[in-house]
Specification:
Helices cover about 30% and strands about 25% of the residues. It has helices at about 1-5, 35-45, 60-70, 90-105, 140-180, 235-250, 255-270, 355-370, 375-385, and strands at about 45-50, 60, 110-115, 120-130, 135-140, 185-190, 190-200, 210-215, 220-230, 275-285, 290-295, 300-305, 310, 330-335, 340-345, 395-405. GO terms for molecular function: phosphatase activity.
Length: about 425
Amino acid sequence: MDGVMDGFDETPGPSCLPQRVPLPAGAPRGVPTSEQLAHTQRLGEIGWSQWDLTTGETCWSDHMYKIFGRDAAQGPIRLHDLPTLAEPADRQALDGLVSRVVRGAVPGQAEFRIRGDDGVRSLRAVLEPAASGVHGVIQDVTARREAERAVAESQRQLLEVRERAEEERHVTLALRDAILPQPGASISLPYARISVRYVPAEKSASLGGDWYEAAPLPDGRMFLAIGDVSGHGLPAIAEMAQLRHALVGLTMTTASPDLLLAWLNALVLNRLDDTTATVVCGYFDPPTRLFTWAQAGHLAPILVRHGTAEQLTPPHGVVLGAISGQPYGVAEIRLEPGDLLLMFTDGLIERRSRDISEGLALTLKAAGAIARHGDCLDAGLDGLIEEIGGPNPEDDTCLLAVSVLEDSRPPIPR
């Protein structure tokens, strides 16, 4: 405060303009001019005042008038009248500051608001006792407080968005868990062992419509399917539920996989607007070990035989919801004891950081090494996911594996 006052003529005047003080001999050069001090006050939105309590005289700098929106012709405000300029809610705090400085001879500061033609502004007053009165500095901190309020509001809105996203994630996970079979569960059958892995995306907003199905049919066959609905979040989960339930219901007709997909495509085109989905599905017949399958724009399954993994050649099939009237092809492959059939969604091999062909190559290599886990298919699938890069941060990963046992014949009913 004393430093702020140095170089000013304490003789009261109409505007108390700062005066240049002659430098003593040998004093360092560079003392700021009155113009420089005035410029500093404008940049910092700072004004200063001197109140002489003995004579009752008051001196304001030019910028004090601007801060208070007061005409210089009206003259400055006396120290004891200063609280009257504040908003009613802030007058007591400012009056207390003035009393403490005057009576207790101790410096202090307070923040208060004033109302002018341009609205309410926030000011900060720093008062300090002087030899014959009080020195004061007033700073307009309106811009700073508005910035702080804007930051606080942004933080509040961000917190609300995060809370809504977390709530939606909980709902999405609960809905998915209610729709799909327990992820990670295994099914042991006389002729095969089936294991499923569902790994949700690491990012909450990326939870999607990946799904799978492995269900025995009344005629003894096993229906296997895996698919992916476009989009993320609750809409994708809801559409996934409709497609999965519709397909499971259609299997009761015992229709071929290509006809199932044609019906499912008609459902998407007529009931699910602006939706696309991919599916691969088929029947595994235990007595013949024949796997009959079709696909709708989905990645073909991988067959692991004698430690070598290769992707099956897919029959013709367009994405569900793309176009009507296009026939779906059918493919067949006779599995052998010891074979491993892997059906998966694109989240397994796709990453933003690598090409899809690279992801497929890594998956084929990792699939060929599953046999080293022995009969523990679950451990083999976990190892495969880790070897190709772990959970996908951008998309769900769904993996359905069928391990054909040595004795693939179903038990004979008694």
